[in-house]
Design goal:
Length: 44
């Protein structure tokens, strides 16, 4: 029973965090117009 209560509390906390982040919204600013260029490392 304790595990069920702990899981419910954890789920409620995670949901509250997601809803808070959704309500706050994205931070102001713009993304970089330059693409992130990288190469895949070669394995010998």
């Amino acid at each position: 029973m304790r595990a069920l209560i702990a899981a419910a509390i954890g789920l409620a906390a995670a949901l509250a965090l997601v809803l808070t982040m959704t309500a706050v919204g994205a931070p102001p600013g713009e993304t970089s117009p330059k693409p992130l260029l990288h190469s895949v490392p070669k394995h010998p």
